[in-house]
Design a protein that fits this description.
The chain has 13 helices and 10 strands. By secondary structure, it is α/β, with parallel strands linked by helices. It folds into 2 domains: 203 residues, D-Maltodextrin-Binding Protein, domain 2 (3-Layer(aba) Sandwich); 97 residues, Periplasmic binding protein-like II (D-Maltodextrin-Binding Protein, domain 2, 3-Layer(aba) Sandwich), CATH 3.40.190. The strands form 4 sheets. Strands 3-10-4 form a 3-stranded antiparallel β-sheet. Strands 8-5-9 form a 3-stranded antiparallel β-sheet. A two-stranded parallel sheet has the order 1-2. Helix 4 links the parallel strand 6 and strand 7.
């Protein structure tokens, strides 16, 4: 009997030594800029969406002021997922040499199908009726080389106003643009969500053209990681993307609109009325239920960026796309 106990003890000890250690969840720091519009800010606010969070991975949403700061954090290893637009993505590859950038999923597109596109607005009583009427006027942009700036300059170029002397372009923060326009400090401003839905702005201004008019559909924001992290943590990233897609589908389902608006209101500390008429509807940006970006549109956006002089050479978008993980995640849900 004593021999049997010794043998059993040895077998148990061997089994424990041979058993794989339980891996700690992978930390995924996920960057975002605009509350609610950037899904990371409310991604897992709905119970039951994040089935793998806390198990194979732990997601930490991290807020940034803009894409340049987010891109720096991704480059220095302080962030796992950066939310980039076509403009910042291509600059990161060309100027910072980030050849290991990988687009793994889409977040929002501007002007896809009949969904929302950024509006370039003039005062309601302005004599400006056509793009040509902008000659000699003062135009607002958020930052030179940003997505809306590229769209505005593309429209000016189409209408013979591409020369720097044709207009005056000044920079301003999106929250301040309504006042800049209404007070007559600028003659045209870009309207982006959620600021473009401000009732006071809607009464005081009208849309002259949209970003889609200027450059067609564009890749406004997509998820970017570095190749090394992706290769090392593939399984955890597929789990993360499964939960991400589950969140996208919850928020964009018409049946969940009231609940989605309530979550947005709580997260932003703004009244639900601010979001009710547009959030996660066709008045909002397009969100693909399978998380797939429009790679052809992305390439077109980058080519335009080069044409306008913001890139020295073209960037071949498809070289930096890896959609195998989000496709695997979507297959689990479909």
């Amino acid at each position: 009997m004593r021999l049997l106990k010794i043998v059993s003890g040895c077998v148990l000890a061997s089994a424990l030594l041979m058993a794989p250690a339980t891996a700690d969840p992978v930390t995924i720091r996920d960057g975002w800029i605009v509350p609610v519009t950037n899904l990371a800010s409310i991604q897992f606010a709905k119970d039951g969406v994040a089935k793998h969070n806390g198990q194979s991975y732990v997601m930490e949403p991290v807020r940034f002021q803009g894409s340049p700061q987010m891109m720096t954090a991704l480059a220095t290893g302080e962030l796992e997922i950066a939310l980039l637009a076509f403009s910042s993505f291509s600059i990161g590859i060309e100027n910072a040499g980030m050849n290991d950038f990988r687009i793994i999923a889409d977040e929002v597109r501007d002007g896809a199908d009949d969904y929302y596109s950024h509006e370039f607005m003039v005062r309601a009583d302005s004599p400006i009726k056509t793009v040509e009427d902008l000659r000699g006027k003062v135009l607002a942009t958020n930052a030179v080389g940003a997505a809306v700036d590229i769209a505005m300059r593309a429209m000016l170029m189409k209408h013979g106003l591409g020369d720097k002397s044709s207009t005056t372009i000044v920079e301003g923060a999106f929250p301040n643009m309504k006042a800049m326009l209404i007070e007559g400090k600028v003659d045209l401003m870009p309207g982006v969500l959620p600021f473009s839905q401000d009732p006071e702005l809607r009464k005081a201004a009208r849309t002259l053209f949209t970003e889609k008019d200027a450059m067609g559909p564009n890749e406004l924001a997509f998820l970017v990681v570095r190749a090394g992290f992706l290769e090392k943590n593939r399984a955890a990233m597929v789990d993360f993307l499964e939960d991400y897609l589950r969140a996208v589908r919850f928020y964009t389902a018409p049946a969940n609109h009231e609940e989605a608006v309530a979550i947005a209101a709580r997260a932003s500390k703004l009244p639900a009325a601010v979001f009710d008429s547009w959030l996660f509807t066709k008045k909002d940006y397009y969100r693909d239920p399978n998380g797939l970006p429009d790679v052809a549109a992305l390439q077109s956006n980058i080519d335009l960026q080069q044409k306008l002089g913001f890139l020295k050479s073209s960037v071949e978008a498809k070289k930096y796309v890896n959609l195998s993980l989000v496709q695997e995640a979507a297959a689990r849900l479909n």
